[in-house]
Write a structure and sequence with these properties.
Layout lengths: L2 E6 L4 H10 L5 E7 L9 H4 L10 H5 L2 E2 L9 E4 L3 H13 L3 E4 L15 H4 L10 H6 L2 E4 L3 H17 L1 E9 L12 H4 L3 E2 L5 H12 L2 E3 L2 E3 L4 E5 L2 E2 L5 E9 L5 H9 L17 E4 L7 H4 L8 E8 L5 E7 L3 H17 L11
Parallel strand pairs: 1-2, 1-4, 2-3, 4-5, 5-6, 7-11, 14-15
Antiparallel strand pairs: 7-13, 8-12, 9-10, 13-16, 15-16
Helix pairs in contact: 1-12, 7-9
The structure holds NADP nicotinamide-adenine-dinucleotide phosphate.
NADP nicotinamide-adenine-dinucleotide phosphate (NAP) binds next to helix 1, helix 4 and helix 12.
Length: 353
């Protein structure tokens, strides 16, 4: 039998992706949907402005939107709330015994909350055992990173583990769907670039170093690399593109870097339904990756890299692309949940002795 799950923030951009990705999922079944008071009490089909290019499933359209409280909610909750609301609401669900698998930034940097990309730092999930909610009710919070940190870190991890990384420079070109719906006003973005996304550069920097950090007892020691991020919003619908330069601890050739990406398959053998066979795809063409052409590689779960060449300031530079609402949000949380199942931490959510 499939495990019943709920979605908090089900009507938003990320909430809609959850519904799309969970349709026909072999392990999970959507059993509960919640959003704000504006939507609560309505059938989901009436409350949502469905923006995806696959039809809204009929069963989901007919489901009622529930109030966003833990009473009556399933024990597994995918959360897609704005950070301010998540900060208040996610602990209520964790305290009530739910496994909260969150997309929001509210708790990503809290010391006892794992910030996880399954291919990168699955071992950080052990932190849930030190959460007070876990000890009291069995509930906990697990987070996935900011949508621009995910693609970058997938590309950096195989290089970091082979050669070490001392410095990272990144400049992003981020899609408008990353700002939710309705997001950036069309008059602000059409024919334009906005060189500011509030708090994004700070999030990218601190999250990247936590993700690449080392678990030491009940805390993560962040990677000791220097990092500088520039974040820009561009008139692209989906898919964040990033120009990256890195300084390595040990020298590497172009062939060695490409081999590190090609051989990166840390989840092989776990059989997680949402895991891409090849998490990082190297594209040899001189003008790739591009968001429209490459964002759906690995069903939207793979990061594409290309344009690898020597850097005049650091050692190497390249381009990374990843789908911001699939790999960067709902797909990331879904893969975290699948990993939790495979580690026996989700089904059923057990109160530790
Ligand atoms: N978009 C991306 O690419 C992306 C990527 C990674 C992470 N994230 C993060 O994921 C979260 C959701 O982003 P989004 O783009 O999906 O935002 P969004 O489109 O603005 O959706 C927000 C959702 O939260 C609900 N909500 C608002 N106020 C609420 C309240 N008081 N109580 C309960 N529910 C409430 C909304 O319901 P109503 O429809 O009823 O208002 C809606 O379902 C954010 O933290 C964002 O930073 C987004």
């Amino acid at each position: 039998m499939r495990q019943k799950i709920g979605i908090l923030g089900a009507t938003g951009m990320v909430g809609q992706r959850f519904i799309q990705l969970l349709e026909n999922h072999p392990w999970f079944e959507v059993a509960w949907l919640a959003a704000s008071d504006r939507s609560s009490g309505k059938p989901y089909g009436e409350a949502v402005r469905w923006k995806l290019d696959t039809p809204l499933p009929e069963r989901i359209a007919a489901m009622p939107v529930s109030p966003a409280t833990p009473e009556g909610a399933p024990r597994v909750i995918f959360a897609a709330l704005d950070a301010d609301i998540a900060r208040e609401m996610e602990p209520q669900f964790a305290a009530a015994g739910c496994a909260v698998i969150s997309n929001s930034s509210a708790f990503r940097m809290q010391e006892d909350v794992p910030l996880v990309i399954p291919e990168v730092n699955a071992e950080h999930l052990a932190l849930v055992e030190s959460q007070s909610w876990r000890r009291a009710s069995g509930g906990y919070i697990v987070t996935n990173p900011n949508c621009s940190a995910i693609g970058l870190v997938l590309a950096l991890k195989p290089i970091e583990e082979r050669f070490g990384i001392e410095a990272i420079f990144v400049s992003t070109m981020q899609a408008v769907s990353g700002a939710g719906y309705p997001g950036v006003a069309s008059l602000d973005i059409l024919g334009n670039v906005v060189p500011f996304i509030r708090n994004e550069e700070e999030k990218m920097q601190e999250e990247t170093l936590k993700l690449l950090g080392r678990l030491n007892g009940n805390r993560v020691e962040p990677l000791g690399a220097k990092m500088s991020a520039h974040c820009n919003r561009v008139a692209v619908e989906d898919g964040h593109t990033e120009s990256v330069s890195i300084k390595l601890a040990r020298k590497a050739t172009r062939e060695e870097l490409i081999a590190a990406w090609a051989q990166f398959a840390p989840l092989k053998g776990r059989d997680l339904p949402t895991a891409p066979a090849q998490p990082v795809e190297f594209l040899a063409a001189e003008d790739r990756p591009q968001p429209r052409l490459d964002r759906m590689r690995g069903a939207g779960m793979a990061a594409s890299v290309g344009r690898l060449r020597p850097c005049g300031l650091l050692d190497w530079k390249f381009t990374v692309l990843s789908h911001n609402t699939i790999r960067g949000a709902a797909g990331a949380a879904l893969l975290n949940a699948e990993l939790l199942v495979s580690l026996g931490k989700l089904d059923p959510v057990a109160v530790p002795a």
